[in-house]
Amino acid sequence: MYFVFVETNIFFLLFFPIKNHEKFYLYLNNNKNKIKKKMSEETIKQISENEIEINNNLILYKNKVLGKGGFGEIFLGEYILNHYPLAIKVESTKTNPHLEKEYEIMNLIKNNNCFPYPYKFIKTEEKNYLIMELLGQSLDSLFTSFKKQFSIPLICSLAFQMTKNLENLHLKGIIHRDIKLGNFLIGTGNKKHKIFLIDFGLAKKYVDENNKHIKNKEKKGLTGTARFVSLFTHKGFEQSRRDDIESLSYNLIYLAKRNLPWIGIRAKNKKEKHKKIYLKKLKVTPEIICKGLPEEFEILLKYSRELKFEEEPDYSSIQMMFKNLLESFGDDLDKKFFWEEELNQI
Prior knowledge:
The protein is α+β, with helices and mostly antiparallel strands.
């Protein structure tokens, strides 16, 4: 899925001081009687042109859109009693709703500093609302801000954290299936140096109730963002952990080269475009895709394409490879993340 974070609205995220969710829940517990009285039933009320009151205790700001896509929008919101800032994802109940499933996924992976914290799912007759932790800008937005010029050391730092995000997600038995820069966000305040993986509308379990890996299937439709999906996804195979890793490699190469050979391909329709992208990916070798880059990028791409369907990726080796590359530039991961210094220039 599908959300593009809007650069012009970023200041709304940073306007409110962020507290961590543990303090938030401590506040809720200390005020539970007052809150319980206010939350006796699900109520949605328009209180002004740009403000919607939810359950008498949340405000959604319609004019402060944080992101939008094919299935809905994300708005800035806040908790009325203490003005705690929130992100509120909204979808219509009439067109293939995803938010309840996304909320279930997020609850499986919460209490982890790699993902936004889910506070509540609210279902009404016309709309669904997912209330979650508010984060900062997306890497896609930041990349645009830097005029698509990220240094190799910065990309190494990002690769280290993004790989950790995927490892923590996969450890919970879940694959993402839409790895792209727009789905990685920085934190705010004292979490500004951290990268968070978001948007689990297309995520799914890759293990069953007995913790056994799902079977590989064929003739599956393309799920994800075509420019970043794996070759196996293009071929119609069931996705697994290897596909998230291959998608990650394309994102890192894109950051380093500011382009991919199949970006900009024109076609009459989406189906034809997907086919042309697949054929280009198939034709262009990893050596050509990664030409001019440190060998680590090519190694990751080749490795991801060689993984077996049920094979667990070697996350530690991937992280170590980019850590060593970072150190070859005279930087290390023990001090402030290198990219944080560059972000402070914005």
